[in-house]
């Protein structure tokens, strides 16, 4: 059975003076057998969301996985949070069979709960 995963992160891989842990977690997850990454949500933490979101798009393109959708989180409002909406949609669709790898702030998860 294939494990369905959403990665919720503050990926700053390749940004000077920032952490690389999220990028490494993405690469490690991609290398796992029987694992499907449904999407990658971005959040603030290691840097501002306005930096992290385009950086994650570029990162995924550079490692050859631009087909995996990237969703932008929000700082303040769950109503404008496309990452939270994606979390809710996938949780409903996979009803208890979804895993979330959260390596950044948990704002998207909180907004999904709201």
What Rg is obtained from the alpha carbons, in whole angstroms? 13 Å
Provide the structure class: alpha/beta
Distance between the termini: 31 Å
Shape: globular
Strand content: 15-25%
Helix content: 25-40%
Largest sheet: 4 strands, parallel
Tell me the number of helical segments per DSSP (H or I, 4 or more residues long): 4
Kindly report the average pLDDT value.
95
Spatial order of strands in the largest sheet: 3-2-1-4
Instruction: Give the total of beta strands.
Output: 4
Low-confidence blocks of residues: none
Q: Secondary-structure element order, as H and E?
A: EHEHEHEH
How would you describe the overall organization of this protein?
- The longest helix is centred in the middle third of the chain and has 14 residues, at 49-62.
- It is built from four helices and four strands.
- The model has no long low-confidence stretch (mean pLDDT 95).
- Strand 1, helix 1 and strand 2 form a beta-alpha-beta unit.
- The protein has a four-stranded parallel β-sheet, sandwiched between helices.
- It has helices at residues 21-30, 49-62, 82-94, 107-113; strands spanning 3-9, 35-42, 70-72, 98-102.
- It is of the alpha/beta class and 114 residues long.
Question: Which SSEs are present, and which pair or pack?
Answer:
Blueprint: E1 3-9, H1 21-30, E2 35-42, H2 49-62, E3 70-72, H3 82-94, E4 98-102, H4 107-113
Parallel strand pairs: 1-2, 1-4, 2-3
Helix pairs in contact: 3-4
Short description:
The protein is an alpha/beta fold. The chain has helices at residues 21-30, 49-62, 82-94, 107-113, and strands spanning 3-9, 35-42, 70-72, 98-102.
